[in-house]
Specification:
With 350 residues, the chain is an all-alpha fold. It contains 15 helices and no strands. It has 2 domains: 147 residues, no CATH class; 151 residues, no CATH class.
């Protein structure tokens, strides 16, 4: 009878655990990002707590406010800006259907060698505008649906980001207690090696964070230098936006339109320079600096970390950038410990 009661209790506990995970399922991504950001900036939290005389809640509130100002507000501004541009694009297409193309821009005539041909194409498209729009009409609905789906996904991503920056306050405030809880749980599972694996996970996440943030900062500085050389206005602001886009692994979202703007303005030399600078320097540094920063200071083979980063990105998306290396690091150390453990003596042959 007692064994039946224990079995029933275990089943109820498993049901409660599954129900809890189901309730938290919509917030796993936000919780994960909040934990990563809090862990990456934990030295700031410790220093600020000491400056404020041990008031952890106040320090957590200040750092959370800084994250919101530095990350959330620019992303929200960028999202609304993209929505406005999409609305302007739809209105432009409607106006083109009614009134046709405007006169060709002056820079088109000044384009070397192909300027006359471009103007000819411009007028040809204007004269055949009705037929062109009739040809494109079956595809415009698909394009509109694609844009709508991507806009909804972008809005969901911004909401998730804001939620993670709210949750980061609790990770800051309750960080030491969460660390003790994680250590106690690992100790119950694997015993004396709990501290080793906790340090392994922490060190792997820290190296990946350093690689991502360090690479994004380097790309932002290089982009700012390129914008200043090319004479693009607002180079510092564009550099900050490059840092944000580099965290999302899409820095061409900034230097690409800047290159197009230079060509539109007729600055072909600087346009070619910025195109080469963006492709080979701004985006190229990602392939060199990020692997170096991720593998620096750890005892894991570089190939394990790189396979974890790339495989995690392919399998889990951007979250896999952190999750992939951690999984491979834990498995690699488990196999290493198993190989290094003493063999059990073979049973005597009867």
């Amino acid at each position: 009878m007692f064994e039946n009661d224990r079995l029933l209790l275990r089943i109820l506990l498993l049901i409660l655990l599954g129900a809890s995970l189901w309730v938290l399922a919509p917030f796993w991504s936000a919780l994960f990002w909040a934990a990563v950001l809090a862990f990456a900036s934990w030295p700031l939290m410790r220093g600020l707590t000491r400056l404020l005389g041990g008031r952890e809640a106040l320090a957590a509130g200040i750092l959370t406010g800084c994250w919101i100002v530095l990350v959330a507000l620019p992303m929200i501004w960028l999202g609304f800006g993209l929505a406005d541009h999409l609305r302007e694009g739809v209105e432009l297409v409607k106006n083109l259907q009614v009134s046709g193309l405007p006169p060709p821009p002056e820079w088109m005539a000044r384009t070397p060698m192909i300027g006359g041909r471009l103007i000819g194409w411009w007028y040809s498209i204007d004269q055949q505008g009705t037929a062109v729009f009739a040809t494109l009409k079956p595809y415009m609905g698909q394009v509109g649906n694609w844009v709508l789906a991507r806009s909804a996904k972008l809005g969901a991503g911004i909401f998730e980001l804001v939620l993670s920056l709210v949750l980061i306050f609790f990770f800051y405030r309750d960080g030491p207690r969460l660390e003790k809880f994680a250590y106690s749980m690992l100790e119950r599972l694997i015993g004396d090696r709990a501290g080793h694996y906790l340090e392994l996970i922490a060190g792997t996440v820290q190296r990946v964070v350093n690689g991502v943030i360090g690479t994004a900062a380097a790309q932002a500085v290089l982009a700012c230098i390129g914008f200043m050389i090319a004479g693009i206005p607002g180079a510092i602001i564009l550099g900050v936006l490059t840092f944000v886009c580099s965290l999302l692994m899409v820095p061409p979202l900034i230097w690409g339109p800047a290159t197009i703007w230079l060509f539109v303005e007729g600055d072909y030399g600087y346009g070619v320079f910025l195109a080469f600078w963006g492709f080979f320097v701004i985006s190229g540094v990602d392939n060199i600096l990020k692997p170096y920063l991720i593998s620096r200071g750890g005892n894991l083979p570089l190939v394990v970390v790189l396979l974890g980063v790339l495989g995690g990105l392919i399998s889990f998306g951007f979250i896999g950038l952190f999750l992939g290396p951690v999984l491979l690091a834990v498995v690699y150390n488990l196999v290493t410990d198993w190989i290094a453990s003493p063999k059990r003596p073979s049973p005597p042959v009867a």
